[in-house]
Amino acid sequence: MIDPVAFSPDLERPEANEAETARELCSVLRSIMEQTARDTGRGLRAVHAKGHALVEGTFEVAAGLPPALAQGLFAQAQAYRAHMRLSTIPGDDLDDQVSVPRGLALKIVGVEGERLLRSEEENTQDFVLVNAPTFSAPTAAAFLSNLKLLAKTTNRAEWAKIALSKVLRQIEKAIENFGSKSSLLTTLGGHPLTHPLGDRYFSQTPFRFGQYVAKFALAPASQNLVDVAGLQIDLGGRRNGLREEIAKVVGAESTIWDFQVQLLTDLASMPIEDSSRAWPESESAYQTVAKLLVPPQPSWNADRNALLEDCMAFSVWHGLTAHQPLGSINRVRGPAYAMSAEYRRELNRCPIGEMGNVAAVSR
Q1: Is the CB of residue 104 less than 8 Å from the CB of residue 218?
Q2: Complete DSSP assignment for 49-60
Q3: In the chain, N or C terminus with fewer CB closer than 10 Å?
Q4: Torsional sign, CA 64, 55, 194, 145
């Protein structure tokens, strides 16, 4: 049994000049999008631009959850339609040999309840996850500093990025052999060339969880996902090799994921405002509250997915008040996600976020 900390608005401690940080962050992200638009003629996402899979499934909230877990979306057993997108983090569409962290975004459709600002007209709950338990920077100000450096690499010679990634993977492997890990190296291209479907994905940042506070995770549950955990992939000569490898698994049989919650139990060891610190699982283990079931289907169709990629936007600020994003990183994400979606909407002339249109296209 654990004793979760009760949610209170007083748990958050905004940084000095946070509004200015948010404005500057939007400016840097927009500069990335403007550069890729010049290169491609399309409005790509400012981050997670390259999609590797876009599939539809069912999100089933478990029955009989204990009171501490039966919160918000998870208050009662129910099945929802869900869209899942797998991606990699840069704002440009790179050869998969530039090996960087992977993202997994979920859009749960048909969710009723009091809505967050910026998503009043929607009926979805979005979860934005990455395959590492911690964010690459502790605060919004630190994230902005890192992003300025990464923005300078947009539209640089891809062959050089591939070569650098190969070197960084070797350095990161050596670091990991000593029991450590560098989020900076993996972000720059040092991520192992492993199968994305075998990874565990994390929210990295905290969220309100009804009466409490939590982080989220999505873990492989079906044997076909467990079998590819840590599997090394040969991407030589395959620019879109990750799409090809994902398609082999998702197209063959159903895949199942466990959606998990880690409740906040100690403010000292589980900070709200420092997203670079992992919350100890020894103090509060992740607990499964739902399952994501994806039936066998093509995970990537160039024509179909091009439309879906344009018409769909994911944001931690699309959802219920009961799952309000918390902490410095999440607060500045709100205007950044909105800016990115609006830029893509204008340039690509697609009605982003209207799930009726997305549902029609997906069929």
Answers
A1: yes
A2: -EEEEEEEEEEE
A3: N
A4: negative
Cβ(202)–Cβ(129) below 8 Å: yes
- Kindly report the number of other CB atoms within 10 A of residue 274's CB atom: 16
CA distance 264 to 270: 7
Tokens of 123: 């009926």
Closest CA to 206 of 333, 121, 97: 333
What's the full length of the chain, in residues? 363
pTM here? 0.90
Convert the pLDDT of each residue in 290-328 to its tens digit: 999 999 999 998 777 777 788 889 999 999 999 999 999
For residue 104, the cross-strand partners are 86, 129
- Which amino acid, residue 205? T
Q: Look at residues 181, 158, 216, 21 and name the one whose alpha carbon lies nearest to residue 101.
A: 181
pLDDT in tens, 162-211: 655 665 566 556 655 556 566 665 665 668 889 999 999 999 999 999 99
